[in-house]
Amino acid sequence: MEKVKKALGEVWAKQPEGRTVIAIDGLSRSGKTTLSKSIAEYLSVQNIPYKLFHIDDLIVERMRRYGTGRDEWQEYYFLQWEIETLQEQFFGKLKTETEISLAFYDSGLDSHVSKKIRLPAAGIVLIEGVFLQRPEWRRYFDAAFYLDCPKEQRFERESEAAKRNSRKFADRYWKAEQYYEEIVRPKERADWVIQSGPEIGETT
């Protein structure tokens, strides 16, 4: 975590009077949420204003991402989010607007709740989630962390119920992740790579 703090300091020093947007990227169960919480706690202690977003809060309804006729991995990668809408209404406004309206997904209702979110005038905006460095979104980040963790280790972090449905992982999640790794090459594009073990490790 010490090197993560140092990396944050380097990014923050470049834009101390504005808003800095940082991606916390990585594949499923790589430790993104854990790292984002640790960073948020650190920023609070340092009295640095911040706002944390989870990209999974902004997914679409089930009928738009399941049973669409496309391959399951394509549904996950291309249809899980409204890619262009988020580009325009979310990522594209993070540096220019003081308040943005977002449709947050409610899994219990399988619908959305619109919320207005105020952004710090000067501070850090953290966005945590998978596939964040896709071409449509990458240019909106001042910096990106990528959590690197073997697939076998990530799968072990899943619930027992999830592990029993290995076909879904093979057909939906892993194929989409493989596409992301091969086409986007997020590990190479990231500013810092974090080796994620039993505990989050050091940056490289």
Describe this structure in words.
The chain is of the alpha/beta class. It has a single domain, classed as 3-Layer(aba) Sandwich (Rossmann fold). The protein is 39% helix and 25% strand. The chain has nine helices and eight strands. The strands form two sheets. A six-stranded mixed β-sheet has the order 2-5-1-6-7-8. Strands 3-4 form a two-stranded antiparallel sheet. The model has no long low-confidence stretch (mean pLDDT 91).
CATH names the topology as Rossmann fold
Question: Would you list the SSEs in sequence order as H and E?
Answer: HEHEHHEEEHEHHHHEE
Biggest β-sheet, characterized?
A: 6 strands, mixed
**Domain unit count:** 1
Radius of gyration: 17 Å
Strand percentage: 25-35%
Parts with pLDDT < 50 across at least 5 consecutive residues: none
What class do helices, strands and sheet pairing give? alpha/beta
Shape: globular
Cα-to-Cα separation, first versus last residue: 12 Å
Could you give me the name of the CATH homologous superfamily?
P-loop containing nucleotide triphosphate hydrolases
How does CATH name the architecture?
3-Layer(aba) Sandwich
CATH C-level class is: Alpha Beta
Keywords: Kinase, Transferase
Protein name: Kinase
GO molecular function: kinase activity
